[in-house]
Amino acid sequence: MTKIIITGCSGKMGASIINAAALRDDITIAAGVDIAAPKNADFIYAQKLSELECDADAIVDFSNPALLDELLEYAQAKKLPAVICTTGFSEEQRNKIKKASENIPVFYSGNMSLGINLITELAKKAAAVFGDSFDVEIVEQHHNQKLDAPSGTALMIADAISQVRDETEYVYDRHSYRKKREKKEIGIHSIRGGSIVGEHEVIFAGQDEILTISHSARSKTVFAVGALNAAVFLKGKKPGMYDMSDLLRETD
User: Fold this and answer.
1) 54-72: pLDDT as tens digits
2) Is 124 a catalytic residue?
3) Which pTM does this prediction carry?
4) Does residue 146 have an active-site annotation?
5) Where do the DSSP E strands lie in 80-230?
């Protein structure tokens, strides 16, 4: 049995984690952390990690980038593996996460969905085959309450493509200048509206042909299940950075 602490337990993703965990017999929620108390929770609750004393095997984080320092400090002090699902981190914060992974196991992914990680690999493969003969555009859509743009998933896909192309430049806004598109560009476009859970489309546009790879998340449950799988995966692991590709290799 893997015992987890949820940071951001009162948010929408926190509720999804709680519901998904209730359907499993290999994981249980030891405690939750949030500014507001979760409804009908049967686990220990605190407003700050520093106030929390409980026995746990991992932290699952769906909170806010502003709380990263507190999260990493607590996880390292308690020697707890951390599944970091929050997005919108700065480059400096991402470096802090990497630094912390020298002391504890850290599972960090821009998206916890199995399907998204598959299309990321497919996009990487397509980019390797096409080279710079195809233009690449990424379109992501999310609900109107999402704070960061572009999404962490869109950047994760773009980063994967960049690994197999000689030179890339991310372009987020084309209306501010007038010039032809350069081959090195990866266009990234954000749409915010309604209750869209998550839509991602990768467009490879060549001469007289277009390849489109897309993924649609119909509920937050897919992300919750992925995060719980990551927590179980991290239990007993050595310090280091892990992501969905590591989990998938272990389950093959």
Assistant:
1) 999 999 999 999 999 999 9
2) no
3) 0.76
4) yes
5) 82-84, 105-108, 135-142, 169-171, 185-192, 198-205, 210-217
